[in-house]
Amino acid sequence: MTFVGRPLNLVVVVAVLVLAAGTVGATVLYNSGVSEVEDQNEQLRAQNEQLREDLASARERVQTLQKRVGSLQRRLAARNETLTEVRAERDAAQSDLRAVCEQVRGENASLPEECANVGSE
């Protein structure tokens, strides 16, 4: 019986050692994997923070540009209004000049130089 007991004990001891080594190996692999994941998470957190800062900077730039565009639009609207007023004044002056030139044509045969290019409508 001792002959069967010793090899059986030896098998049990070897099996326990193999299982222990497997457990230690699995634990080491698990810890290594966890370490890699933690490192990746830290890198992603840093990258995420940088992206947040970039986004905030881009938003500030967009707001600045929107304000500038608004200012330019107001200036353009004011200039367009001024241009419309100037055109209206020009049209009124041309109309007055036309009327004067027509009156002069009726009264004189010679026209002033200002009436040379003024046509009647």
Describe this structure in words.
- It is a single chain.
- With 121 residues, the chain is mainly alpha-helical.
- The protein is rod-shaped.
- The chain starts with a helix and ends in a 14-residue tail after the last helix.
- The protein has one helix spanning 2-107.
- It has one domain.
- Residues 34-75 form a coiled coil.
- Keywords: Coiled coil.
Please write out the topology.
Blueprint lengths: L1 H106 L14
Q: Per DSSP, what share of the residues sits in E-state strands of 2 or more residues?
A: under 5%
Shape type: rod-shaped
Tell me the distance between the termini. 137 Å
Query: Helix-strand pattern, N to C?
Result: H
Helix content: over 70%
Keywords: Coiled coil
Gist of the model:
The protein is rod-shaped and about 145 Å long.
Q: Which tags fit this structure?
A:
mainly alpha, coiled coil
